[in-house]
Amino acid sequence: MTADPNSADPDAERYRSIVETVGDGVIVFDTDGEMTFVNQPIADFTGQTRASLIGASLETLGESGLFDDSEFERLKEAIGSLCHGADREQQLTIETAGPDSSVLNVRLSANRCDDTIVEIVGIVRDVTERERAVAALERDREALQQLYEVSASSEVTEAERLREVLEIGCDYLDLPYGFLTSIDGQTQELVDVVGDSEILTPGATVDLEQSYCRRTVESDGLVGLADVAAEVGPDDVAYQTFGLSCYIGTKVLVDGDLHGTFCFAADDARETSFSPNEQQFVKLLGQWAGHTIERQQFEERLRGLNDVAGELLRAESTGEVAQIGVDASADLLDLPVTACWKHDPTAGALRPLAETDACLAVVGETPTFTPGDGLVWRAFDADELRVYEDLTAEPDSYNRETALESEVHVPLGDHGVLISGATELRGFGDVDVESLRLLGGLMEAAMVSVKRRESLVERGETIRRQNEQLEEFARVVAHDLRNPLAGAVGFLEIARETHAEAHFDRVEGSLDRMDALIGGLLDIARGERTATDESDVSLEQLVDEAWSYLDDPAATLAVADDLGRIEADETRLLQLLGNLFRNAREHVGEDVTVTVGRLRDGDGFYVENDGPSFPAEKRQEVLLHGQTTSEKGTGIGLMSVTDIASAHGWAFDITEADGGGARFEFRVDGADQ
User: Where is the PAS domain (predicted)?
Assistant: First the structure.
């Protein structure tokens, strides 16, 4: 029984104090449904005063709009049941009406006096946050269960799995659109789309800079924008392009490399920000997509390798096996620079057996390896697959002047070795490595089979092999291409960071330089020294461009004079300067200082460095033959320098700089010396 407010009973006062101070709401009804007591939390919750509530009927709560009709009827029936003695206690969860609804846990108890029900006491607790947390957990559980069922199903393709997961994400986030993208450089393609959108269509491509995903790619992994216009501004290029007001996306990594993004969006903004659970779930979906795509790619490779295995079994010679293998590496693993060597036990050497056209273009003549020839022989001798993601960091690489940056060496037992490489730094993931290992095993088995067949069919016959020697000029080409290639790589990195069109133009210019160099150097290699295409060019501008290819912050360029202009073939003069700068850096050190100036005693220019002087006997060898016997490679670059000077009809001399370094002088007003 509730204590009389006017009672002087100390126990009643103590109970009243407790009821007044508890955080839960306390409300008391008499058996006629009239409120006889409410504490302050009840008054605060209803938005009325305690005085206005005490003495009011239960119907007052129904008429206040605090509950909708169905919820009020549940409360009314529970109180009525207690008043009639049907139950001693009732507990129910009811929800208030309105946009900011709350979930209440109401516990009702019948208070008796001499077995007569005199009042109903209600304890009201706001459990909104708890109920929402439980609902969120249940939603998470259901979504994860769906994700597990999709993953475990063996009746769908990988593409169908990805689409089902997009649908799961849309349901979980209550967003209409889900899409998977792939990204290649600055181009983003929509691989698959869930939801009826006129803008988001499968197969559509867009510049990454105009997409929401550019933020995702630049982030640590996830971007969530509940209200794009409010959070990034209505002038955002992606908002202007697509008009989506809500976006959340995460990166999709395949074998550690960026493949694309996994995203969800809506035309309208979201009322609340994405919760930590929602963000974590989207990240999980992105990781799942990455693993799925990785598995899909590996399965596709396995199917491709299965077809290759059939071709290898039908091969009739070791050379055919090698060609099938190098073609498979180029096509299936996207490693076009691939070659195969066969072990010649009589000569104790690895002789070239097959290569791709791309390999010939990059390396030139495929070399023969003998014991001790760097990394290749080590892999063969140890019968161990070895990965070199950065050849420039390997001092024992066979030819450091080629354009190759990364390689994988795959031994073929005692039959030979397969080498696949790339002209850019490449990270070889587990899928790549295991695919190459499997290809190597198939090639080795095929070579064993061919050898057995040849032994049976052609017993006693000497197998004749002819190796045509290709023009041995690959090192020269690679040396000269390193300058514009380094420039192109450097400008491309800056362009990716700044997205400035001018840097992309410089990349294109470097590639044009490389194209012209390749043509010219191949002509020289064949002995077809074509005439120069001379024009009036700025010497200082070419000096700056050639120096930019060096990309070494420790090195210093000094321009001693106003270099003015000169009549020269622009591409070949740039080649000449680049070789001199690179040679100076390689043979003096990273802190080299290179000076370029005009000759004081004639029409021409000089290039000098502050390193050790050029030996007199070497000077004469360069001047007479265009090359030296330096094991460090000086002669390769200087052979091009002498050839370019000769093509222009310039006098070329090597002297000692005032500070003791090497000085190269070019006189444009004298006969070729």
Answer: 11-58
CB atoms within 10 A of CB 402: 22
Q: How far apart are alpha carbons 313 and 311 in whole angstroms? A: 5
CA distance 2 to 412: 93
| Mean pLDDT of the 433-460 span | 79
Ordered domains of the chain (ranges, CATH)? 10-126 (3.30.450.20), 132-299 (3.30.450.40), 332-459 (3.30.450.40), 476-667 (3.30.565.10)
pLDDT tens for 387-419 read: 888 887 787 777 666 778 888 899 998 899 998
pLDDT band at 525 (very low <50, low <70, confident <90, very high): low
Phi and psi at residue 633, in whole multiples of 5°? 100, 10
How far is it, in rounded angstroms, from Cα 428 to Cα 286? 21
pLDDT tens for 260-273 read 999 999 999 988 88
Strand, coil or helix: what is 596?
Answer: strand
Give me 532's structure tokens: 């120069």
| Pairwise CA distance, residues 425 & 407, whole Å | 9
Q: What is the pTM of this model?
A: 0.45
Contact 614, 582 (CB under 8 A): no
In this prediction, residue 463 has a pLDDT band, given cuts at 50, 70 and 90, of very low
Q: How far apart, in whole angstroms, are the C-alpha atoms of residue 563 and residue 609?
A: 17
